[in-house]
Specification:
Blueprint lengths: L1 H4 L5 E6 L2 E4 L32 E6 L2 E7 L31 E2 L2 H4 L5 H19 L10 E4 L4 E4 L5 E2 L4 E10 L2 E6 L11 E4 L6 H13 L3 E12 L4 E10 L13 E6 H9 L13 H10 L5
Parallel strand pairs: 1-4, 9-13
Antiparallel strand pairs: 1-2, 2-5, 3-4, 6-7, 7-8, 9-10, 9-11, 10-14, 12-13
Length: about 300
Amino acid sequence: MAAALANPQTRILPLWRGRPLFAAAGASPDPVAGAGLMPLAPGHPVLGAGTEVPLFLGLSGGQAVFAQDVSDWVPEGALPDGAAFFDATEQTHPDLPAGSCFAELRGRLPALDPRAGELAATARALLTWHATHRFCAVCGAPSRPEAAGWQRRCIACNAQHFPRTDPVVIMLVTRGNSVLLGRSPGWPEGMFSCLAGFMEPGEPLQAAVRREVAEETGVIVGGVRFVASQPWPFPAQLMLGCQAEAVSDAITLDPAEIEEALWVTRERLTGIFAGTDPQIRPPRKGAIAGWLLREWLADRLN
């Protein structure tokens, strides 16, 4: 790791408060980190705002890639609203090229190619885990990073701790020609999505789908099958995309979980994707929910 960090060909992806550094629009893709991100070389002045050692993300094209938290830097102007569902502000650093910025990953996912997306998701999830797990869960003493950032060890009882990933089921629930969509309280106006929820200990995938749909909407689900997965580092979920067939259509909301839910026909979903629906905005690009809806609409899920 020391040799890699001394290699000028190594890439270090800085993140400020969980926000990756993005390249300016139209910039050439980085040959190591991919398109959309702006990794830095070891020793760059921006990296001096980090108080922790860089975390090793892996090798890409034979070159080492690290992530570095630089949250000690204080930008000019208003700071992002940490309580907001999505904050579209961007932070520009005086030591970086014009057009580059730190920004919320949710809004920039469509601009990243698969390699850059994987690196950004891994970096955000790993740095968030370190920031929120500084103390031992066994004895409460401070812990410190080990294994290039892929574990922490307690300085008192020597217990080892490893990054966590929380499995979440996200369901394309259909009944005939319609799909079930819902929105959570606090979501932006017009935003609807597939239903989703965390899995519980000892729970099979299919049971989690049926329980979450029933709890949130009262709809009863029969057959369930797994379709695809997506890491979702907000902060550390693995989204398990499933297709589920409802055997009832009456909706009874749990207002603590769901603000509104409704059945949407294929014909209306076509208008939603086209941006012509007066109530529901098009699904966000880069998220598995939009992909599931798009694949169902195109009859590519079966």
